[in-house]
Amino acid sequence: MATTETLTDALRAVPGPYRRATRWLRRQLPMGLYARSLLIVIIPMVLLQSIVASVFMERHWQLVTERLSAAVTGQIAAVIELIESSPPQDYDKIVRIAREHMNLTVIIEPFQPFPPERPRPIFGILDRILGDEIEDQIKKPFWLDTFGDTVQIRIRIDDNRMARVFVRRNQAYASNTHIFLVWMFGASLVLLTIAILFLRGQIRPILALARAAESFGKGQKIDDFSPRGAEEVRRAGFAFIQMRERIERQIEQRTAMLTGVSHDLRTILTRFKLQLALAGNNPDLDGLNEDVADMQNMLEGYLAFARGEAEEDVGELRLSEVMTRLKAEAELHGKALTVDVEGEDLISVRPNAFTRLVANLASNAYRYAERVHVEARHSARWLTITFDDDGPGIPESARDDVFKPFFRLDEARNLDSSGTGLGLAIALDIARSHGGNVTLGDSPLGGLRAVVRVPA
Question: Which sign does the torsion angle of CA 353, 354, 359, 361 carry?
C-alpha cells in the first residue's frame, strides 16, 4: 500500500517539472522562423550523423582492427614457432625474414620480468582485440604496449628466452577513419550551406507579408507589396491583398454613405434651425434647440472621424507638442496636470487622428477629475501613453460597454456631456486603426486609468 501511494505521488509530481522544463526549453529556443527552420534542418542532421558515426565507426574500427590484428598475430605466431624450432645460430636469419617480409622488428633476448601493465584507455579497441588474438593464437604469457605509433609486444617463449616484437600501429589498427569523418562533416557543411541559402529565399516572402500586414495595421500604404515565394505563401499573400481591398472598399463605402447621410441630415437640421429662429425666443423651445445642437454635434463628430480615417496619411508627430497642448487645455480647465515622457520624441502616426485620440482621453479626465498624470513611453516597438486621474472612475462591469458607440453611463463619467457616447468609441477606433488598443483600469490616484498602446 505504501509503495502504491509513493508511486502515485511520484507520478503526480512529474507534470510540474515537465512543464517547467518545457517552458525553460521554449524560452531558450529562438523565436524567429528563420532560426527555427535552421534548427529543423540542423538537429536531425546532427542526430543522424552522430548515430551513423557511432554505429558505423564502431563496427568499422572493430572489424578492420580484428582482421589486421589477426594477421599481425598470425605473423608473430609464425615467428615464435620458428624461434622455438630453430637453433640459436638461425635467429639472425629469422629476424631478417620478419623484418623484410613481415615488417616486424624482432629482438630475441634472455627473459626478464615484464614491466607493470599500463592502464588501458576506456576506448582501447586495439588493446582488447590484439590481446585477445595473442591469447588465442600464441597462448603464451605476453606484455602489450599500444601507446604511440609503434606497438611493442613482449612474449615469453620459455623460461630462458623472450621475444620483443615491434609493429607499426597502422599494421594492426584501422587508422584511416579520419577520411570518413572529413567526408561526412564536409558533406554536412555543403548541405547546410545549401539549406541556409534555400531557407533565406523562402523566408523573405514570409517576412515581406508580415511587414505588409503590420504596415496595413498601422494604416500605412503598401503599394509595393506583391506575393512571392512558395505556393502557400503566395496564396496567403493574395488572400491578404483581397482582405485589404475589401476593408478599404468598406471604409470608402461607409465614408460615402455617411457623407450622403450628412448632406441630407444637414438640410433637415438647417430647416429645424431656421424654423426655431423664426419662432423667436420661446422658453418652451429650449429643449428642442438643445436636441438639435446635440444631433448636429453627434453627426459632425462621427463624420469628421470617419473622413479623417479614410483620407489622412501617416506622418510624423512630436510627443512634446501633444503634451504642450494637453498642458494648455489643463490650464484652461483649471486642472493639475503632470507629464512624464520617456523615449524618442518623434512618432509615426496619423497626426490629426492621434492628436484627437489623446485629446479625447485627456478631456475625459479633465471633465471628471481634479488631478491628472500623463505618462508616455516610446520604445523601439511600442508607444504607450497612460492617463491616470483621481475622478470617480468607471465601474469594472461597464468598461467594455463604454467603448460602444452611443453608450452612456447614467451615474458615472462619460466622455460627451451631450450624451452622444462617441468619445471613447472614436478613441478606440483611432487606436485600432494604428494597430493598437485602448484599455481601462484602476488608477493609483484613485480614479480611472486609460492606457493607449500602439506600435511605434
Answer: positive
